[in-house]
Amino acid sequence: MTADISQLDLDEAGAVLAAESARFASFGWMRGTSGNLSVVLTRDPLRLAVTASGHDKGELTPADVVLVDGQGAAVHGGKPSAEAELHARVAALTGAGAVVHVHTVASVAMGRREPGGIVFKDLEMLKGVGQPAHDVEVTLPVIANSQDMKVLGDRLEAARDPRMPAVVVAGHGLYVWGDDPRQARHHTEVVEWLLELELAQRQALR
């Protein structure tokens, strides 16, 4: 495989990503073959295990991952997600050890309502992304979509707020990251809760 990464390392990463994918799929956040996950295996050089393209995310096996480099190109395995390059960009930019991309209704709906960013404040759940529950406003950035991952990565880099480990891609979904898959999962669930609350409040006021 590589000098620093064995097949066992990739298999173990695949097992973790399969379990995380099944969890998110059970919530309806990765319908069909949508969404993708990654975990960093080495930092120098940057190598990530990324879920393979075209697979039902509720039925992944440990073998359904691809080893990619810092540009998202396959180093070992089959075809990675088309968004592997963005996963690598996020990992390099933020220092994250894992990246989650899910397609949730709330992220798409709120991205359309607040294209300039979604502001949260005075909510206990903000503690779940490392922020105070009160006396602070935290903005979840919203960026325009693109099929060009370099363009999308540039937009993410320009818009991201270090206080919020997530970005909404308009008309597409949610990217979230953390130090490891468990933290990335927790961040994803917290940010999605915040989005669902905001959407429910908007709908209640109509």
Automatic annotation (TrEMBL):
<feature type="binding site">
    <location>
        <position position="103"/>
    </location>
    <ligand>
        <name>Zn(2+)</name>
    </ligand>
</feature>
<keyword id="KW-0862">Zinc</keyword>
<keyword id="KW-0479">Metal-binding</keyword>
<keyword id="KW-0028">Amino-acid biosynthesis</keyword>
<keyword id="KW-0456">Lyase</keyword>
<comment type="function">
    <text>Catalyzes the dehydration of methylthioribulose-1-phosphate (MTRu-1-P) into 2,3-diketo-5-methylthiopentyl-1-phosphate (DK-MTP-1-P).</text>
</comment>
<keyword id="KW-0486">Methionine biosynthesis</keyword>
<dbReference type="InterPro" id="IPR001303">
    <property type="entry name" value="Aldolase_II/adducin_N"/>
</dbReference>
<comment type="similarity">
    <text>Belongs to the aldolase class II family. MtnB subfamily.</text>
</comment>
<feature type="domain" description="Class II aldolase/adducin N-terminal">
    <location>
        <begin position="15"/>
        <end position="199"/>
    </location>
</feature>
<dbReference type="InterPro" id="IPR036409">
    <property type="entry name" value="Aldolase_II/adducin_N_sf"/>
</dbReference>
<dbReference type="Pfam" id="PF00596">
    <property type="entry name" value="Aldolase_II"/>
</dbReference>
<protein>
    <recommendedName>
        <fullName>Methylthioribulose-1-phosphate dehydratase</fullName>
        <ecNumber>4.2.1.109</ecNumber>
    </recommendedName>
</protein>
<comment type="pathway">
    <text>Amino-acid biosynthesis; L-methionine biosynthesis via salvage pathway; L-methionine from S-methyl-5-thio-alpha-D-ribose 1-phosphate: step 2/6.</text>
</comment>
<feature type="binding site">
    <location>
        <position position="101"/>
    </location>
    <ligand>
        <name>Zn(2+)</name>
    </ligand>
</feature>
<dbReference type="InterPro" id="IPR017714">
    <property type="entry name" value="MethylthioRu-1-P_deHdtase_MtnB"/>
</dbReference>
